[in-house]
Design a protein that fits this description.
By secondary structure, this protein is of the alpha/beta class. It has two domains: 156 residues, NAD(P)-binding Rossmann-like Domain (Rossmann fold); 169 residues, Dihydrodipicolinate Reductase, domain 2, CATH 3.30.360.10. It is built from nine helices and 14 strands. The protein starts with a strand and ends in a 16-residue tail after the last helix.
């Protein structure tokens, strides 16, 4: 068994991570921190954990040594403290965006500041097991992944790695629990978690992760990316309109996705010809670590230069596969445990 602590455990992702770790057979939760709620019991902020734990929030200054440190701090905070935090644990999984990007210059562009510890960027493995499993095995440091980036990368990875896509228009509809930037009301105000609002029509910082992970070069045609918040609390649904370089048949798309994801424990291909659940739906996987992916080949006559359109649809729970669940999956890979350990449950339905 390992001893793990959570820095920044009072947020949505931190609370979901605590819920998962309390039930993980190989983990003992040592400490949880919150500057705002120091001294309060975990269930004061996360009432679903009443009766599950007697842990109280500590201040960061009171944090002791452990085997694994999960960092759930807001963006731009872990990067300032990484040297000190690294002395407390042999391994770190950071859920923020502070170590996701390989190029320090990207932090100036997408996060609005120079990275104070650029030499640490190469030490962190991008924590998406489906793409970086081999590098994560035995790794000491892993980054989290942006929830919008996760659902989009998994939707598009089989196509981009084969060089099939000329241009993509992506619209991600998200629940209000997403705290992707400082403008997000749900990051610090759980009571406002039902708010419906416009999110990021252009310029969302997760674009940097998509460019990096999908291997999109500076001279290639565009990736157009928009985020809109809709009337749900959990979930992210990516609709990706892919304009292809060459025409493909539906059976070939099936073959590519099965080839890449057929053995993945948390990716399910969803395409029904009957019934009401024909395509991925975020509510179906609420509370689970799955990413559901489906697609439709547009058989109508092509427009816009004659390019064929393939629509790929993917859904995740943004607090699970988009944050805490993916972090636990990453931890399992790092320690060589079964990848599904502590994550073996389906989503809730109905919800």
């Amino acid at each position: 068994m390992i001893r793990a602590s959570i820095v920044g455990a009072s947020g949505y992702a931190g609370g979901e991570l605590l819920r998962l770790l309390l039930a993980h057979p190989e983990v003992e939760v040592a400490q949880i921190t919150s500057e705002t709620y120091a001294g309060q019991y975990a269930y004061f902020v996360h009432p679903n954990l009443r009766g599950q734990t007697g842990l109280q929030f500590n201040r960061l200054a009171e944090l002791g040594a452990c085997d694994l440190l999960f960092l759930g701090l807001p963006h731009n905070q872990a990067m300032d403290r990484i040297e000190d935090l690294a002395t407390l644990a042999e391994r770190i999984v950071d859920l923020s965006g502070d170590f996701r990007l390989r190029d320090p210059a990207d932090y100036v562009r997408w996060y609005g500041r120079e990275h104070p510890a650029p030499h640490w960027l190469e030490r962190f493995v991008y924590g998406l097991p489906e793409v970086h499993r081999q590098a994560l095995q035995g790794a000491r440091y892993a980054s989290g992944t942006g929830c919008n980036a996760t659902v989009t990368v998994l939707a598009l990875w089989p196509l981009y790695r084969r060089g099939l896509v000329e241009e993509t228009v992506v619209e991600v509809k998200v629940g209000s629990s997403e705290g992707g930037n400082k403008a997000s009301p749900a990051s610090h105000h759980p009571e406002r978690a039902g708010v419906v609002r416009s999110y990021s029509p252009v310029g969302h910082r997760h674009i940097a992760e998509l460019i990096q992970e999908l291997g999109i070069g500076p001279d290639e045609a565009g990736l157009h990316f928009s985020i809109t918040s809709v009337g749900m609390v959990r979930g992210a649904l990516a609709t990706c309109h892919c304009f292809l370089r060459d025409e493909v048949a539906e059976r070939d798309v099936w073959r590519m996705y099965r080839e890449d994801y057929g053995d993945e424990p948390f990716i399910r291909l969803v395409r029904g010809r009957r019934g009401i659940h024909r395509y991925p739906e975020p509510k179906i996987i609420s509370g689970a670590n799955y990413c559901d992916i489906g697609f439709v080949v547009d058989t109508q006559p092509a427009t816009g230069g004659g390019r064929q359109r393939l629509v790929v649809i993917a859904a995740i729970d943004n607090l699970m596969k988009g944050a805490a669940g993916n972090a636990v999956q990453t931890m399992n890979v790092m320690y060589g445990w079964p990848e599904t350990l502590g994550l073996e449950f389906p989503g809730l339905h109905p919800i």
